[in-house]
Automatic annotation (TrEMBL):
Residues annotated as domain Large ribosomal subunit protein bL25 beta: 174-255
Lineage top rank: taxon: Eukaryota
Organism: Platanthera guangdongensis
Domain Large ribosomal subunit protein bL25 L25: 63-165
Pfam families membership: Ribosomal_L25p (PF01386), Ribosomal_TL5_C (PF14693)
Name the UniProt record assigns to this protein: Ribosomal protein L25
Gene3D superfamilies recorded: Ribosomal protein L25, beta domain, Ribosomal Protein L25, Chain P
Length: 266
């Protein structure tokens, strides 16, 4: 039986009493443009008009197992041009939930961070392939889709010190700080009048189904006038994403510029 055929009251009751897997699948229940209801059992997909991950950066991150942790071990790994890393499950992973110590290639992580930028690197899913060694024909121990959860850079040199990855199967919902991309400055009426853009947020946290993690969110400035603001609730995102901020938090606003001959009254 399809859930979309049930009356709303019965559907709500059913979802509240189902196990976690059904609850996650229920995130697919959202209206289409023709007001029909999407099949809740179907995989979630990106919708037309929303940003898609750039296939240019669809790279498999290579890794090898690491037997031990600690400062001395990590230091030796970095001297070998490897980044000490961890991959774990979402729920209590840092407490030992299917945690695996690994090392990844410094050059590969550095390249991806430089190409994407730190915030965009932390909001993109990658395939992680753990091999017995970095030799091409070595045994594949595990291949899994992951989200870079934490990235630790050296404060002085920006050298990559540590990376933490989280496994991201289709059943997972991930808390992600999604980067914002501001567009429409050239037609923004407030900017044309001499106002300036006051950016308050560069990222916004959402609970995202793993199959439709947005690479970024567009912020449209094309109709913003002096004194107006955009709130997080105004952002256009996939209906299956859940906002994890208060809805009235501001993203940006336009402040009027002081005229050259205007002076502060004393």
């Amino acid at each position: 039986m399809m859930l979309r055929r049930l009356p709303p009251r019965i559907l709500s009751s059913l979802l509240l009493h189902q196990p976690r897997q059904l609850h996650l699948a229920a995130a697919a229940i959202y209206p289409r443009e023709d007001n029909s209801i999407c099949d809740p059992w179907a995989p979630l997909e990106y919708l037309e008009g929303f940003p898609l991950p750039d296939p240019k950066y669809a790279e498999t991150i290579l890794a090898i197992p690491r037997a031990k942790s600690g400062k001395n071990i990590s230091s030796k790994e970095r001297k070998l041009e490897r980044v000490p890393s961890i991959v774990f499950e979402q729920e209590k992973g840092e407490e030992g939930g299917n945690k695996r110590l690994i090392s990844v290639k410094t050059k590969q992580i550095r390249k991806l961070v430089d190409q994407l930028g730190r915030s965009f690197f932390l909001s993109r899913l990658f395939d992680l392939e753990i091999r017995s060694s970095f030799v091409d024909e070595s045994e594949v121990i595990e291949k899994v889709r992951v989200l870079p959860r934490k990235l630790h850079l050296h404060s002085g040199t920006d050298a990559v010190l540590n990376v933490t990855f989280m496994r991201a199967p289709s059943t997972a919902s991930l808390k992600i700080d999604v980067p914002l991309v501001f567009r429409g400055e050239d037609t923004c009426p407030g900017l044309r009048k001499g106002a300036y853009l006051n950016t308050i947020k560069r990222t916004v946290k959402y609970l995202c189904p793993a199959d439709i993690v947005p690479p970024y969110i567009d912020v449209d400035l094309s109709e913003l006038d002096v004194g107006q603001k955009i709130l997080v609730k105004d952002l256009r995102v996939h209906p299956a994403l859940k906002l994890l901020h208060p809805q009235d938090q501001p993203v940006c606003n336009l402040r009027g510029a002081r005229a050259p001959d205007q002076k502060k009254s004393k």
